Amino acid sequence: MMDSKIIVMLTNNDRTVPDAIQRFQEVKDLPISRFGFKDVGLEEPKMRRLIADMKAAGKDTFLEVVSYTEDACMAGAKLAVDMGFDYLMGTIYYQSVFAYLSTQNIKFLPFCGKVYGSPSVLEGSFSEIIADGRKLLDSGVFGIDLLSFRHQDGAGLASAYCDAIREPVVIAGSINSFERITFIHQIKPWGFTMGSALFSKNFMKDGTFRENLEMVVRFMASLE
Q1: How far, in Å, CA of 9 to CA of 91, rounded?
Q2: Which terminus of the chain is less hemmed in, N or C, by CB atoms within 10 Å?
């Protein structure tokens, strides 16, 4: 398949879907190694059941936290560690959060650039965002969660970032068409997330969640 790996997020409209456990069971046999969800939308016991199911199926697990204050970001980091996620995506970078995560067996991909609001907005010039990403990577984080399509020039930013920095970056959000999957294949980030587009049936209008994901898998394979 194409170099950039999909991270299937069991989320819709920035929340974990209520039936995420069932949805994962429907698609866990597909040739996808990365799955994740958000820290909102699902009760904690169900979150624990879901991540246990993902680990039992041999998947790499991702928690994305869209929080901005230091306390909220630390709470998200502790939740990710407590539940045993492999990767934490999101949060604003705070030294306290990074110091805590550095003592844990988890990889950290914070936001870079100026991120705020709900839904999130990313601001800054390409050079400012790329410089911030480089600074965070130099500080020791594993990679970057880039909300490029929450920027006024999402494609331009994603392309410029991937040209400038080859360390892991996840293009998070709004990969919602075959054209954007093709674009991702061209710029080759480490990964990209997809959630709402599958639940909105962007790829097969009358298809199920599984059928939409199968369509994406086939299309990605065709880009080899």
Answers
A1: 17
A2: C
Picking from 8, 4, 1, 14, the residue whose alpha carbon sits closest to that of residue 147 is 14
What does the pLDDT average to over 157-176? 97
The span from the CA of 99 to the CA of 101, in Å, is 6
- Which pLDDT value is given to residue 167? 97
CB atoms near residue 178 (< 10 Å): 15
For residues 10 and 195, the answer to whether their CB atoms sit within 8 Å is: yes
Helix (H) or strand (E) holding 64, with range, is strand 60-65
In what helix (H) or strand (E) does residue 130 lie, and over which residues does it extend? Answer: helix 126-139
Whether residue 169 has pLDDT greater than 70: yes
Please tell me the pTM assigned to this model: 0.97
Q: What is the pLDDT of residues 61-93, one digit of tens each?
A: 999 999 999 999 999 999 999 999 999 999 999
Cα(136)–Cα(122) distance, integer angstroms: 16
Q: Under a CB-based contact definition with an 8 Å cutoff, are residues 174 and 180 in contact?
A: yes
pLDDT interval class at 140 (50, 70, 90): very high
Decide: helix, strand or coil at residue 168.
Answer: coil
Q: Residue 3's pLDDT is what? A: 72
Q: If you ran DSSP here, which 8-state letter would residue 18 be given?
A: T
Q: Which two tokens stand for residue 203?
A: 């790829």
Confirm if 2 and 218 have CB atoms less than 8 A apart.
no
Identity of the amino acid at 74: M
Other beta carbons within 10 Å of 140: 11
Cβ distance 20 to 42 under 8 Å?
yes
